């Protein structure tokens, strides 16, 4: 990954960002990080079962792209989905309670980490099958095109998923039908224990869209403002009816693939270097401080607010009861076929 510009240079190059916006991004990224740290703790305490894939390190990707989205736009992603839910406005309590398998969770505690949805926030999961969300994303975009509105869909997937055949079938159809879908490749450098360079000889994943005539670009995913700017270009392209767009967002996950990861495929030094030199939250923090947009005290206040939200979510997720056995028989079939989108 190329070295990032200094905080001062980045501020100078992005004069159109207000202090309020910067603070919002700081707050949103911090919420994801603290939420994930808490989820990791609850997992360690045995309160979360099954798999749990944390998003720590990748926060700028989803916060930057949500900053480019409008109300009514849709999103669908993989199992590494807690950050996406929080960033699109889903409630931390409902997400955490789902992780602990409680009735107050988004799927009444019956789905867990990889099976949450919100019709209100246009969040369509949470998919455990690698790459499965990509054709689903194209389908969501197809619905919007069919209905004649100007919504766009963000279909997030990983560098590993980018080697799946269904991704390319989807590219072909999406371009053929000019579907308003943004394919977001979250390139965090690894697919479980496999580094990108061990899995492909053509590392510019976004360029694979060229074979189908799909426009795209690579973005620094540790810079929330760069992500937002690229997101705006992608959204404008889709809303103008020009078809899909690919964003390959270069990022890094600090934690293991899931909570059970022997971490033998990379060195501690590599992770430490990313944390120290490229951290997206620290980057915005420095921009706020050096630009005189916030004081240490202002930031401490934000940190405290976020901690409270996360602690409340954790309390709720412990106190909310487990679903009753009768819930086994509910939410299996839809009562009515959805008519709107
Ligand atoms: C079809 C399928 N094959 C394999 C797996 C096992 N698996 C789960 S996650 C994963 C790696 C995916 O990596 P990537 O797409 O880079 O996403 P990341 O975990 O880095 O976010 C694999 C192989 C699966 N869940 N589904
Ligand atoms: Mg990956």
From TrEMBL:
Entry keyword set: Oxidoreductase, Pyruvate, Thiamine pyrophosphate
Enzyme Commission no: 1.2.4.1
Catalysis: reaction(s): N(6)-[(R)-lipoyl]-L-lysyl-[protein] + pyruvate + H(+) = N(6)-[(R)-S(8)-acetyldihydrolipoyl]-L-lysyl-[protein] + CO2
A molecular function GO annotation: pyruvate dehydrogenase (acetyl-transferring) activity
InterPro entries: DH_E1, PDH_E1_Alpha_Subunit, Pyrv_DH_E1_asu_subgrp-y, THDP-binding
Subunit and partners: Heterodimer of an alpha and a beta chain.
Protein name (record): Pyruvate dehydrogenase E1 component subunit alpha
